[in-house]
Amino acid sequence: MDTFVTNLAVASLVPSHHNTVYHLIVIVVAAVAAFLPRYFPMRFFTNRKIPEWFNEWMKYVPVSLFTALVVKALFLDGKYQYFFDQVNALGTNVTVFGHASYLIAAVLVAIVAYFTRSMLSSVVVGLVTVWLLTFVL
Amino acid sequence: MQQKAHQFNPGNQRWLEVLGISMPLCLSYLPIGVACGILLHAAGMNFVLTFLISIMVFSGGAQFILASLLVIDAPISTIFMTLFFLELRYALLGSSLSKYFRSSSQKFVLLFSASMNDENYAVNYLKFATDKKWTPQDALMVEHYSLISWASGNLIGGLIGSTVTIDLEIVDFALTALFIYMIVMQMRSHLSLIICLTSTALSLFFLTLTKSTLGIIIATLIASLIGFAIEDWVRKHSKDPKNAWVLKRLFRPAMTRHTVEDRQMLSEKKAQQAAQVEAANDSGEE
């Protein structure tokens, strides 16, 4: 067991390509890119009075943002182009706009979230549905 | 429900209570974290680096995208710009939370913003809006609990990455499912449904136009401004803004109508009715 763990550790320490220094630079760059937009706007507004209209506007930011992120995952491919899925339904080929299995799973996730308000069951139902659909579609 | 919580937490300790609130979040972070660790391992990072990045970046979307950028050997400038635009949404999320951190120190704000994330933001935003006893300290605790589970997930993923192969198409959907869940949680009025549809159309247009995550930011900004404008217009032009169709609450199944927010609304309504009755009595006496 011990040798297995050490072997595993050694194996994971050797990168398949690139070197550690390059990866460390990437990590620092990524951390800076992640930190700047999180810190400065928040810092700016804790010292100042936020105008009422700003608060009212911010109410609609999360729903717009999450929708945009979901749309990207459901309807676009890796190159930001519209994705069309070929699905064999009841012996006929159907062209669907978007990733077919994701679309079906997305509807189920929304239904489960609506009725249970549970994050975990929503995610699990989504993953299981996509997994099951890989056998069907 | 509360009695049950009391059994698990006899001393009524705050850290345990907050842990209970963040548990669903932590439990869903763990498997996604493992998937992300495996993905980063496949992109050539060892488990130490994977662990480091999960703490320093702490963003599911950013780390997934970073893995795909590493695979295609993207230049560092591209990596920075892509991640920066992806993370730019936190500017909006952070400033929407900032009103609750008026009395906190700058060091605290630094610490808090460093580990802010879509999901723990959603939890904290809801708690701040509905729970009067929710403090910045509690919010930071939620962030750190989720960070611990996310980082452990990444570490595990980085360690087992060489031994397992997973279907990336399935794992990829975990993040989407999480976002769909949060959209449903955000659905309060008919207007939020309209904004959701508006954002769908806008993001379809701008994502293909910009061919980058910049489209997400543009669509978010426009859709949220439209929502703000509609609400503003209704409030100014409707005789009874609270009961106007756009601002009316969406129908929800009876079994999910027991949130803190609902109770607050009910007590507000009762107080209003009591005030009206009192006012009627007063005028009757005169």
TrEMBL record, chain A:
The keyword Transmembrane applies. InterPro entries: Brnchd-chn_aa_trnsp_AzlD. Signal peptide: none annotated. Keywords: Membrane, Transmembrane, Transmembrane helix. It comes from the Bacteria. The chain crosses the membrane at residues 20-36, 57-76, 96-115, 120-136. This is Branched-chain amino acid transport. It comes from Limosilactobacillus ingluviei DSM 15946.
TrEMBL record, chain B:
The lineage of its organism: Bacteria, Bacillati, Bacillota, Bacilli, Lactobacillales. It comes from Limosilactobacillus ingluviei. It comes from the Bacteria. Keywords: Cell membrane, Membrane, Transmembrane, Transmembrane helix, Transport. Pfam families: AzlC. It is a multi-pass membrane protein. The keyword Ligase does not apply. The chain crosses the membrane at residues 18-40, 47-72, 78-97, 191-209, 215-234. GO terms for cellular component: plasma membrane. It is found in: Cell membrane. This is Azaleucine resistance protein AzlC. Belongs to the AzlC family. GO terms for biological process: L-valine transmembrane transport. InterPro entries: Brnchd-chn_aa_trnsp_permease (IPR011606).
